[in-house]
Design brief:
With 171 residues, the protein is an alpha+beta fold. The chain has one domain. It is 34% helix and 20% strand. It has three helices and four strands. A four-stranded mixed beta sheet has the order 1-2-3-4, with helices on one face. Helix 2 links the parallel strand 1 and strand 2. The radius of gyration is 21 Å and the shape is elongated.
């Protein structure tokens, strides 16, 4: 009788180990960090903003950079990016009334801005390129974007420009 619970326990342990192995993320060549995100200029999801909304926005930006930079990096190189400040395109205008508290108003006077530091390493761990950038796109509303429904389209366009200029090697 004692062998059945033991076998069941071992089977469940084996199953959870297999699930853990499947859920384990692949090692990536791109690492994105956010330094003191609670102090960022504007990563709010409403006039007052929430930690959950901020974290969701930063996760989407992180995932986007990892996806794009992985494709742009030459084989064997690694990229580390640390965001020091984020200011999303648009802003909340509280004087419009309480029904507009969660509506981001996008105008030319509210361009997207990023302050970031980055480092690209080769296979030996030597620095290939590094620097700090203050990215701003004053003409962000004039761009033709493919996904007009994406709330972070302006920021993603600006990040694409940065990846093209600093991360991708000239071919």
């Amino acid at each position: 009788m004692k062998t059945l619970p033991l076998l069941l326990t071992l089977a469940l342990a084996g199953t959870s180990a297999a699930v853990a192995a499947v859920d384990k993320p692949e090692p990536t060549r791109v690492v994105v960090n956010f330094f003191e995100p609670e102090k960022f200029t504007d990563v709010k999801d409403g006039s007052f903003g929430t930690d959950k909304g901020r974290d969701a926005t930063l996760k989407e930006l992180r995932d986007y950079i990892v996806e794009r930079a992985e494709k742009a990096l030459p084989a064997g190189q690694k990229l580390s990016v640390t965001f020091l400040d984020v200011d999303l395109a648009g802003d909340y205008e509280p004087w419009r009334g309480p029904r507009m508290d969660d509506v981001r108003i996008v105008k030319d006077i509210y361009p997207p801005r990023f302050k970031l530091a980055f480092r690209i390493l080769n296979e030996a761990g030597d620095t290939v390129k590094e620097g700090e950038r203050q990215l701003t796109d004053l003409a962000f509303m004039s761009r033709l974007t493919i996904n007009r429904q994406d709330p972070l389209r302006y920021e993603k366009d600006m990040l694409n420009d940065w990846i093209r200029s600093d991360v991708r090697t000239k071919s």
